[in-house]
Structures are given as C-alpha cells and as structure tokens.
TrEMBL record:
Protein name: Cytidyltransferase-like domain-containing protein
An MF annotation (GO) of this entry: metal ion binding
Top-rank taxon, per record: Bacteria
Cellular component annotations (GO), alphabetically ordered: cytoplasm
C-alpha cells in the first residue's frame, strides 16, 4: 500500500480569496493529506506586523471548510517549521513563490516546493479597492 504523502503549508489566510484557494488546491495535489499551519492573531501582530480582519478561530473555521484542507494547526512562531515537519511526518513543505528560497533550509528534512502565486489578488488589494470604492 502506497505511503500517504503529507503536505504542509503556512499562512495567515485572512480575507480568504481565490489566490489562497489556488495555493491550497495545488498544494493538496502534491500529496494525499494537507496540513495548514495558520498564523495566530498574536503571531500575526508581533511577527508580521499585520492585524488580521478575522480572528484565528474564524480563519480556522473557514480553512476547515475547504475540501483540500485535512488539518489546521496554529502557527505561533517562525521556528516551529522544523518541529512540525518531524512531528507531523511531513513529506512536502509548500509555500507561494513570494517566499522562494526563504525555506530552503528545510530541504534536509523534506521536499520544499514554491508554487506560483495567483496574480492580481491579495488581501491588501481587496482592502485598498474597498477603500476607494467607498
Ligand atoms: N498566496 C497566493 N496567491 C495570492 C496570495 C497568496 O498563492 N494571490 C499564497 C501565499 O504565497 C502563501 C499563502 O497563499 O503561500 C498564504 O498567504 P498569506 O496568508 O499572505 O501568507 P503569509 O502572510 O505570507 O504567511 O511562516 C510563513 C508565513 O506564515 C506565511
């Protein structure tokens, strides 16, 4: 019986949009089981200096409703990736290519794949458009 390929990806996924869905869909295609490590509100604020519109709990429930997502765990710090890869027996680490190269240090633990971002859509873009459209 073929071993299940386990994939993990990380992010804030605030104001969930089709760019996020494309990423999750393509990440799932790489294996059989997709874990999303979701940035907590505190991690967002302290480490990414961004305040998510939706709380962690709301962002988590949105992700859990996506057919490609099998498990959502909290992302509380930058350094947890190596532990997560071991603890969850990860085969493939995936991020959008805005992060290209940034996580190559994980290559000794699992495959590292950067997927193309979906152009023209971002949470910042949505917020700006809403501001100008009034
Ligand atoms: N993404 C995408 N296309 C977009 C927007 C986002 O493919 N138009 C991808 C990003 O490349 C990322 C994922 O969707 O892989 C989640 O995006 P964010 O929530 O912006 O993630 P980020 O804040 O970059 O957090 O430790 C890693 C960080 O938690 C990554």
């Amino acid at each position: 019986m073929m071993e299940m390929k386990r994939v993990i990806t990380y992010g804030t996924f605030d104001l969930l949009h089709y760019g996020h869905i494309n990423l999750l869909k393509n990440a799932k295609k790489l294996g059989d089981y997709l874990i999303v490590a979701l940035s907590t509100d505190e991690f967002n604020w302290k480490e990414k200096h961004k305040k998510s519109y939706f709380s962690y709990e709301k962002r988590k429930s949105l992700l859990e409703a996506i057919r490609y997502v099998d498990l959502v765990i909290p992302e509380t710090c930058w350094e947890q990736k190596e532990r997560d890869i071991i603890e969850y027996k990860i085969d493939i680490f995936v991020m959008g290519d805005d992060w290209a190269g940034k996580f190559d240090y994980l290559k000794d633990k699992c495959e590292v794949i950067y997927l193309p971002r979906t152009p023209e859509i971002s949470t910042t873009q949505i917020k700006n458009d809403l501001k100008t459209s009034g």
